[in-house]
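Work Package 4 report. The design task specified in the project plan requires that, given a folded chain encoded as structure tokens, an amino acid be chosen for each position. We show below one input record used in the internal validation round.
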């Protein structure tokens, strides 16, 4: 007899996600992913000036604060065939790279580590033994007995106070928690240190973007960062070198703390490489454009069908027809009118039709995207597999490092196929974070060299011709492929669609009733205690859900969609 588990809301994510599972014989046998909230940001874009769209779309999310801004200007620039000055590309690349490092650090330590790390068990650890263990993993200078003792003292006073604060609802002592006390203490120390480093990453975003969350410096055609190396107020030499020192500090943390921690967690939970693969069609897009038109990129992207790296097909750039034509969205199981099959985003429709939660009908506000008619998983794992398939050297290097460290600690040779899993998504995110750190170094140097050559340009003025233009922009956001699609008529927005990373992964069943990536990845997961479904959270959290991003609406006819009464 199957037991039904409903987790609603899933916490330590952004937005309102409900997960339902049927559990039989200690395993998940069926699953539903449901977005429980909708918002209407794109509605207010109708009829507006396309130059303003990025300011509005950026408010889709408060977590990935830059991504909807950057991809929006890319979509409008694509529609206008507008080139972007090199300095502007590099400055945008630095912002999205720094934001990404921030986002990945926060996800591993603050949003998901507590699925694997037992804070209460850390109280039993011997700080000296912890420091010794840490020295076998990394040269990080803050793994000292003194710092680890101080962390343990802090945790003890928290636990003894009876007011656990942010740690109040952890599954402490759960049978699926497997780390020894020393590893738990080390992870707890890094949880606290990670708070400092995510702030450093955000400083880069704030310096270049004028503020964070929600940068202020973008423009269709470039960025609003005047470059003047001799003045006190614009982008000066002093600020540029300050950014460099912040990037260096991020690199130390990512390489000496995040990468070894993920390898250690992966080794102790090697059994979790056997769960959570789900959808193994992987989609990612190239990132860090290196020229004014977006034809050359530092980081590759593409499509891998069926987990077969040999079948990798690259996506070439901002004009790529393979990507442009491959995307569609189904509303068959979402709370919108349906019946026309999966629609291309330029022709997307979003007319609400709320039912109730129907297991075989409609049950989510998230639509179900597909690529070439199939479900695809997006995110750091998809990106790392595509970059590895494309032979990207830094990706291969960090991938080898994580897999060999985890294999050494686990005492077994962990195969590359282990990446198709819940733990693989964490490993890939850490690998991607280190790759992005190296890219930040590279982009900073490219910016300095270009300025050094005497080029101070940051903006090309857009011109909107009469008639209709269509454009799309993509971005490899922290949670995966993000694309915005815009139809411009006589200089005004006629239609605007966002197909978002968490929409790809959190979407419900599609036109063919195929499960979405969250749903498929939950099948066969063990559940030791249905009252405390920690394992379900592990797999869902491994995707880094953002439901604010996943749900959004468009109405091409400008009809009022629904009236909301604030009570
Ligand atoms: Ni709101 Fe975001 C986007 C998603 S970036 S967090 O776009 O999904 O990862
Ligand atoms: Mg959409």
């Amino acid at each position: 007899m199957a037991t039904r588990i409903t987790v609603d809301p899933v916490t330590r994510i952004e937005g309102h996600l409900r997960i339902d599972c049927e559990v039989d014989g200690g395993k998940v046998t069926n699953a539903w992913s449901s977005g429980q909230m909708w918002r209407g940001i794109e509605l207010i874009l109708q009829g507006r000036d396309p130059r303003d769209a990025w300011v509005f779309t950026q408010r889709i999310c408060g977590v990935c604060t830059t991504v909807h801004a950057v991809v929006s200007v890319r979509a409008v620039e694509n529609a206008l065939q507008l080139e972007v000055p090199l300095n502007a590309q590099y400055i945008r690349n630095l912002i999205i790279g720094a934001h990404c490092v921030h986002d990945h650090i926060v996800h591993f330590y603050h949003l998901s580590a507590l699925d694997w790390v037992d804070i209460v068990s850390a109280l039993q650890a011997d700080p000296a033994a912890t420091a010794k263990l840490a020295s076998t993993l990394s040269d990080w200078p803050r793994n000292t007995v003194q710092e680890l003792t101080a962390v343990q003292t802090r945790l003890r006073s928290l636990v003894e106070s009876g007011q656990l604060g942010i740690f109040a609802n952890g599954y402490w002592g759960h049978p699926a928690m497997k780390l020894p006390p020393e590893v738990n203490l080390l992870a707890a120390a890094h949880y606290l240190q990670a708070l400092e480093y995510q702030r450093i990453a955000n400083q880069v975003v704030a310096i270049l973007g004028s503020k964070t969350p929600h940068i202020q410096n973008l423009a269709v055609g470039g960025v609003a960062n005047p470059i003047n190396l001799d003045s006190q107020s614009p982008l000066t030499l002093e600020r540029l070198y300050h950014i460099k020192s912040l990037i260096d500090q991020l690199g130390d943390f990512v390489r000496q703390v995040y990468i070894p921690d993920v390898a250690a967690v992966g080794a102790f939970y090697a059994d979790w490489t056997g769960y959570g693969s789900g959808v193994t069609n992987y989609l990612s897009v190239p990132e860090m454009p290196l020229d004014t038109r977006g034809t050359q990129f530092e980081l590759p992207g593409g499509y891998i069908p069926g987990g077969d790296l040999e079948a990798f097909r690259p996506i070439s750039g901002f004009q790529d027809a393979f990507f442009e034509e491959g995307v569609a969205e189904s509303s068959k199981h979402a709370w919108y009118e349906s019946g026309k099959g999966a629609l291309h985003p330029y022709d997307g429709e979003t007319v609400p039709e709320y039912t109730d939660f129907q297991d075989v009908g409609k049950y989510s506000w998230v639509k179900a995207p597909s690529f070439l008619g199939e479900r695809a998983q997006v995110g750091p794992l998809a990106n790392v597999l595509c970059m590895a398939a494309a032979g990207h050297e830094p990706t291969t290097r960090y991938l080898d490092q994580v897999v060999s460290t985890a294999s050494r600690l686990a005492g077994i040779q962990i195969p590359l196929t282990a990446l198709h899993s819940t733990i693989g998504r964490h490993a890939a995110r850490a690998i991607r974070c280190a790759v992005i750190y190296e890219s930040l170094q590279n982009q900073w140097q490219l910016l300095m060299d270009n300025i050094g050559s005497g080029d101070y340009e940051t903006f090309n003025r857009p011109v909107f011709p009469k008639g209709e233009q269509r454009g799309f922009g993509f971005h490899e956001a922290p949670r995966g492929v993000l694309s915005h699609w815009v139809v411009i008529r006589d200089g005004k927005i006629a239609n605007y669609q966002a197909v978002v990373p968490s929409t790809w992964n959190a979407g419900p069943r599609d036109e063919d009733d195929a499960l979405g990536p969250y749903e498929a990845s939950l099948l066969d997961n063990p559940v030791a205690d249905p009252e405390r479904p920690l394992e379900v959270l592990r797999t869902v959290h491994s995707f880094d859900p953002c439901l604010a991003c996943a749900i959004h609406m468009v109405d091409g006819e400008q009809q009022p969609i629904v009236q909301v009464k604030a009570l």
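The chain has 15 helices and 15 strands. Validation will be extended to a larger panel in the next phase.
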